[in-house]
Write a structure and sequence with these properties.
The chain has 386 residues and is of the alpha/beta class. The chain is built from eleven helices and 18 strands.
Length: 386
């Protein structure tokens, strides 16, 4: 808050009442990422007045939302306009700022390098070929674009694709103290992949315990906060291999996951396998943050006709049946494949594009669910009046 703002006790009862109405109006606004009003969230709402003709307002959310300042400012001004149409504050200018503060959840004892990570999000699918890795890398980039410090771990031990997707092929991570990896910086992310440790043509021909050991080593022997200004990552996104095997169980047992994002297509067969993924995470007490329905709609590049090639409504039905939520629907677009194959995924290649906006929507929705889980018992928001 600005030190020049007068304390509300210095104002007349009429002014104080009107400022309280402004706060209540803002508190009633729905947060799009959670579909809940601010007064049902642990969001800080501040309202101040300079004693002349300027009202200062702000909202602090618990998930990254840097792209939403203008959207929220317009909503707040529109909602508060009737409140300020008359009375002693009529004609005042209303300034609005949107902030975010990502809280850390206490998960008990963790390996030392993972103490630098606030939240770990697994991106999983029941089967291959649904665009899980593409979704994971764009989700990580979208979280970073919204203002978070983000790491990306390629846990697909048998088919590591992160070096290709981020154009870091041939890169080798720095080693410290003979046993710790320094994450490879790539397009604003702190990354680690088995692909950095193997040659391009060398497959990981390993049995389950060997693969699980490799994942555990990358998780616990990578200095995740090394290159971050405050020494902490807000989120570590883990691109899981498809299926429900050793790697998934190892991750669930070794670290406290903030939650899992399940990627599927509307196709019935993909949905059947995605359900297995949901059930697996539930069995190991990992919250499912939501469903991402990939390849939901194809737009013809010639005529613009849109068609749900793989079916429609499957993600919505699955979310309803399993008491989770549909985080977003992504199109079947050649540009997504071309950009990712070319080493610059969509969110990095076209940050202001329509598809990047969809990935950012998914990122905000997933991060908001992490926030809700972290602050489930915190109660109502704190409203400061000055």
């Amino acid at each position: 808050m600005n030190d020049d703002h007068q304390d509300h006790e210095d104002f007349s009862p009429e002014v104080t009442e009107q400022l309280e109405q402004v706060a209540a109006t803002i508190g009633a606004l729905e947060d799009p990422a959670t579909a809940l009003p601010l007064d049902a969230l642990d969001a800080d709402i501040e309202v101040g007045f300079d004693g002349d003709k300027t009202i200062f307002t702000s909202v602090t959310l618990g998930y990254p939302c840097a792209s939403q300042q203008q959207v929220w400012a317009e909503r707040v001004r529109a909602a508060c306009a009737p409140v300020l149409a008359g009375g002693p504050l009529a004609g005042s200018t209303l300034n609005f700022d949107l902030f975010f503060d990502i809280p850390r959840t206490d998960v008990g004892e963790v390996p030392e390098p993972l103490k630098a990570v606030k939240h770990i999000i697994a991106v999983a699918s029941g089967k291959g070929g649904v665009g899980k890795s593409t979704t994971a890398v764009n989700l990580a980039l979208a979280l970073a674009a919204e203002g978070a410090d983000v790491g990306l771990l390629d846990a697909d031990i048998y088919g590591p694709s992160l070096p290709t997707m981020l154009d870091t092929e041939g890169t080798r991570p720095e080693v410290k103290a003979g046993k710790f990896f320094v994450p490879v910086p790539a397009q604003g992310l702190q990354t680690m992949s088995l692909g950095y440790l193997l040659t391009e043509d060398t497959p990981a021909v390993w049995r389950g315990p060997m693969a699980s050991g490799a994942l555990n080593q990358m998780l616990t022997q990578t200095l995740w906060g090394e290159a971050v200004e405050d020494g902490e990552l807000d989120y570590l996104v883990v691109d899981m291999p498809p299926g429900t095997g050793d790697i998934q169980l190892t991750l669930s047992q070794k670290v406290a996951l903030a939650g899992a994002v399940i990627v599927t297509t509307p196709q019935d067969l993909a949905l059947v396998d995605a359900i297995k993924g949901v059930e697996m995470f539930r069995k190991v007490s990992v919250p499912v943050l939501g469903i991402v329905e990939n390849m939901a709609l194809h737009t013809c590049s010639k005529c613009g006709h849109q068609e749900p090639i793989f079916g429609a409504g499957g993600g919505d039905k699955m979310a309803a049946d399993y008491d989770t939520r549909l985080l977003g629907q992504l199109p079947l677009a050649m540009s997504i494949r071309q950009q990712t194959d070319g080493g610059k995924p969509t969110v990095a290649a076209e940050p202001e594009g329509a598809v990047a906006a969809l990935y950012k929507q998914v990122a905000r929705a997933a991060a908001a669910q992490v926030w809700l889980a972290a602050d489930a018992d915190e109660g109502l928001p704190e409203i400061d009046m000055e």
